[in-house]
User: What shape does this take?
Amino acid sequence: MIYSRIIGTGSYLPEKIVTNADLEKIVDTNDEWIQSRSGIKERRIAADDQFTCDLAEQASLKAIEAAGIKSSDLDLIIVATTTPDQVFPSTACLLQQRLGIAGPPAFDVQAVCAGFLFAIDVADKFIKTGSARCALVVGAETFSRIIDWTDRTTCVLFGDGAGAVVLRAADEPGIYSTHLHSDGKYKDLLCVPVGVSRNFKQVNSGSAFTTMEGGEVFRWAVTAMSDIVDETLDANRMSRDDIDWLIPHQANIRIINAVGKRAKIPPEKVIVTVERHGNTSAASVPLALDEAVRDGRIKPGQNVLIEGFGGGFTWGSALVKM
Ligand SMILES: CC(C)(COP(=O)(O)OP(=O)(O)OC[C@H]1O[C@@H](n2cnc3c(N)ncnc32)[C@H](O)[C@@H]1OP(=O)(O)O)[C@@H](O)C(=O)NCCC(=O)NCCS
Assistant: This one.
């Protein structure tokens, strides 16, 4: 049996910090409201000339360095993003060129804030079936580009960033299991209602923005991300005590706390970055993972349950031995 194992992590945040006080100057909001409703204190926003691939490249270089491999060792590149640089080629192809690699498959997956879990699932299957031996999996977003900065109900919640992992084939887990779900009937609750094939003029004029039914999304996110903890543990015949760390999608501290409570994972086992990153969509989980690996909380051999939830709805998890 072939397994895939995370052998390196990396992340990148744009330099520009936007605090809640900065947002008070552009919309009718305040630090107290934002912190009490979301836990967010600040977020990073990409510079005008910085695009998703730029963020992905920085995160990837760090993951490749941490893995102790060369870019040329990679035989698969998957980028999870909802904010690609171009309609096409994929951000993964742009990243491949930056990394100086030619030949191996490179493609994007789009599952919004659950995208990294979908990408990990695909890469894991490539490795398990012998189609790849060393994969780069990236979650990268410039979500600020699809936010209406005059809409206080959404603009306070999101940020930009990228996280990456290198997966390599191994004789032992590694990734124990992955679990993915989608339910398109909730498509209108969290979306950008225009795209390339539909009202492209709005995309072109830079007014393709995220809309959201916050309360509904909140309820669904809590249910989906706590239920999938049980699904993941059951599939591996493991108990909560076998989990060293939970890394939920970083959308809102109240969602994270409610997931921990409902899933019966104590707060000291839950990695939280949302207060400094905001919701970075597909980048949120690999960013949090890299941070906790680099600051020494996550140690080799520990079991980490990562999970995501996003528009679609889409949701997924992976149980990983580091
Ligand atoms: C958006 C969210 C933070 C709102 O929190 P909430 O507790 O439901 O908010 P409340 O219902 O208590 O408050 C809403 C009120 O605050 C106001 N409000 C909204 N945004 C505000 C802001 N940035 N500053 C001040 N007031 C704001 C609303 O206009 C509304 O006012 P009204 O009652 O006069 O109409 C919460 O629903 C949420 O996080 N949802 C999930 C969002 C998410 O994570 N999406 C991505 C998932 S991948």
In short: The two ends are 18 Å apart (CA to CA). The first helix runs from residue 20 to 24. Residues 29, 33-34, 37-38, 113, 152-153, 156-157, 190, 212, 214-215, 217-218, 221, 251-252, 255, 279, 309-310 surround coenzyme A (CB under 6 Å). The chain has two domains: 3-172, 177-321.
